[in-house]
Amino acid sequence: MPTSATSNHPSRPEDLIGRLNSAHTPYEAKLKALRDLKNQIIGNRTKKLAFLKLGAVPSVVSILSSAAAAQGGGGDNREFYESVLIQSAAAIGSFACGLDAGVKAVLDAGAFPLLLSLISHLNEKVADAGARSLKLIYQSKRAPKYEFLQEKNMEFLLSLLNSKNENVTGLGANIITHSCQTTAEQQALSEAGVIKRLVSLLGGSINQKDASLESLAAMVKENSEVSAKFMGPENGRALNVVIELMKDKHPRTRLLACMCLISIRNTSTSYLQDSGIKNTLVSVLLELLDDPGPVGDEAPFVMSSLITEKEDMQKIAFNANLIEKLCEHLNVGSYQAKRLQGIFLVLGDLCSKLECCRDRVLDLQVLHFVTEALAHDSAEVRTAACNFLKNVSRSVKNLSAGQFMNEAVAVPLVQLLCDSSSSVQIAALGAISNVVVDFMAHKSVLMQCGGVKQLVQLSKSMESAIRVNAVWALRNLTFLVNYRCKEEILLELTSATLISLINDPEPSVQAQALALVRNLVDGTLSSINYVFGEDGAVLHAIARQLRSTSKVEVQIQGMYALSNVASGNELHKEAVMNQLLPQAGNDAEKTLVKFLQSTDSQLRTATLWALINLTFPGSPGTCRRITELRNAGIITQLKNMVNDHCLDVKLRARMALGQLMIFGDSSS
To answer: Does 463 reside within a domain?
Structure first.
């Protein structure tokens, strides 16, 4: 039997680790060291990090492993080794609690399978300690994904859910919440009878209720079949139970009940659509926003899942004074990053569709808080603030009133284009794209603070999402700007970069690049000349892309770009004609007819505009171009389009045909 440890051992981190690691330390002393370690790190992030640096986790896991092996061999010291197992598991759980670095260290040290083996221990206290520790690990995104589709794993999960130990059943539910991500996994869990077991836990302890609600939300999310099964008669009054839990005295239970109901509601337009449940959901979540703890931090995200892209819910939330409530919280200030992120997320959702929400937000001077949010330490907060700006700036009347593009907003947005987070960069690009779309004064502010240079730089990014958003912003920046601004933009952009973007491997980037050219050549003859520099390299690039691409969005923008060029003088028209119908251009002829026959009305319209501009009466070469178009079978095709089901196409087809018929129709 190990000798007794003295009671006055030093408890400095280095000494504790030394006692845990030393082969000469008696096991009873190691047990005391484990208790001391656990007590020091519980709820103390600083201490956890200090012990992590000293390598405490591998030491504890090693002791757990040794104790499990020794205890498995039987003998008189079984109770002692069980105490070591309990204390080791508790210490490991403490390291994992609320600290991703701790979870990583625990997993790297090989603790997971050891803890999992404790679940089936005959001593309920040991099993409970293992379950508690694993539950804490499964609160982290770093926790290992559980493979439900393997039969033995599903059997083990069901054994957890059927356990009489509350922490073990909670662990089973936590595993589902963390790992149930695909439709196949949701279906497999449903077919295995997991829903029924989770529903039964709704009548258990507060921890079981919460774990069950969260798991059910994960299982039904975006899965109408599983939702239907939950709503089915085999689960009795399960839905009513969840609805009643929105009135529970515990805030977290109310929050999770809302989350579960929203997951069900979002799977089908036939579920939970009555005004009573809609108003109750908004009302409960509105109240939970005031919770000072984690529930209040999470409530905005649940509210967002309720109202995002749903105009009816946004109206209810607006009428319930949600914007005022969120502004009250902003005025209080000094919130954790997560809550601040959630507030701007919800404000952005509210402003995505309703002008009344945008007006209210501006009346309450929310923009005063945006500047600080754009410079927040948290990338998530910066992203949410940018997305809010993107949505609130959809208001044309407020854009024209100059509400957004001043230096207080423009400078931070441009600075975010250099952010270390690509998510922030993309969000900032989205905000800039909206803000600069239509008002010259706003464009000037952005250009003066170096925005164009940064946008061009990002258009060369290796990340396609950044490239497409950067080119989109440049496209909007060039919309209806004067010649001088275009010159400034092209000075940074260069023809070589523009051609590279037109030939980008991503069709979405190609389309935005062609739309950018479309805007650049819109307007004066001088503007059209942009595509004729360097022997017409940009014009050739457009034509090549049109002949090779199969993507309709690329074809539409390419044809509009050529249409704008064709609106110029005779030289410009001839250049476009040579691209559309080159010598020996059978493929080109087929391409032109194919575009006119497209099922996409926008592509048909864009192609017709090009024909209208090419055959504009009074231009010296119009007669010859009409002859070439007639020989290519274009007139015959136009006659087939004069009664097109799309009004815009029908009008443009008749206009084009009228111009071509001025010179007669030898095919008739």
So the answer is: yes
Cα–Cα distance, 117 to 648 (Å, whole number): 70
Angle between helical axes of 124-137 and 100-108 (0-180°, round to 10): 120
Give every CB contact of residue 485 below 8 A, 6+ residues apart in sequence: 440, 443, 444, 447, 478
Assess if residue 468 is contained within a domain. yes
Task: Provide the 8-state DSSP code for 2.
Answer: P
pLDDT score recorded for residue 665:
56
* pLDDT single digits (tens) 31-57: 898 899 899 999 889 999 999 999 999
State mean pLDDT over 182-190: 94
**Higher-confidence position of 380 and 404:** 380
C-alpha triplet 416, 417, 422: angle, nearest 5°: 90
In the three-class reduction of DSSP (H, G, I as helix; E, B as strand; rest coil), residue 534 is classed as helix
Task: Give the range of the structural domain holding residue 466, as residue numbers without chain letter.
Answer: 405-493
Burial class (CB in 10 A: 0-12, 13-18, 19+), 638: buried
Do the Cβ atoms of 226 and 220 come closer than 8 Å?
Answer: yes
pLDDT at 421: 96
Closest CA to 561 of 578, 542, 580, 587: 542
Q: Would you state the pLDDT for residue 238?
A: 87
**For 75-84, 123-132, 485-494, which range has the lowest pLDDT when averaged over its residues?**
75-84
Cα separation of 644 and 624, whole Å? 27
Q: For residue 439, give the nearest of 470, 410, 471 by alpha carbon.
A: 410
Rounded to whole angstroms, how far apart are CA atoms 95 and 315? Answer: 45
Report yes or no: 627 and 642 within 8 Å, Cβ to Cβ. Answer: no
In a domain, 35, yes or no: yes
* The predicted structure's pLDDT at residue 622: 92
Q: What pLDDT score does 235 carry?
A: 64
Token readout for 381 is 């907060």
CA distance 175 to 177: 5
List, in order, residues 6 or more apart from 338 with CB less than 8 Å away. 297, 298, 380
Residue linked to tokens 């529930």: 295
Nearest to 344 by CA among 326, 356, 331: 326
Handedness of CA 143, 144, 146, 152 (dihedral sign): negative
> How many domains is the chain built from?
2
Hey, which bits of 250-313 come out as E strands?
A: none
Mean pLDDT of the 464-471 span: 97
In angstroms, the first-to-last Cα distance of the chain is 111
Q: Is 471:433 a contact under the CB 8 Å cutoff? A: no
CATH number at residue 96: 1.25.10.10
What contacts 134, CB < 8 A, 6 or more positions away? 93, 112, 115, 116, 119, 171, 174
- What are the backbone dihedrals phi and psi of residue 365, each rounded to the nearest 5 degrees, phi first? 60, 40
Structural domain ending residue among the three candidates 447, 473, 493: 493
pLDDT at 666: 47
Q: Is residue 478 within 8 Å of 516, Cβ to Cβ?
A: yes
Question: Residue 76: its pLDDT value, please?
Answer: 62
Length of the chain: 668
297 with 338: CB under 8 angstroms? yes
- In a domain, residue 136? The reply is yes
Query: Percent of the chain having pLDDT more than 90?
Result: 68
Greater model confidence, 533 or 218 = 218
Given 444, 461, 493, which residue is the final one in a domain?
493
- Look over the chain and give the mean of its residue pLDDT values, rounded to a whole number: 90
Is the per-residue pLDDT at 177 higher than 60? Answer: yes
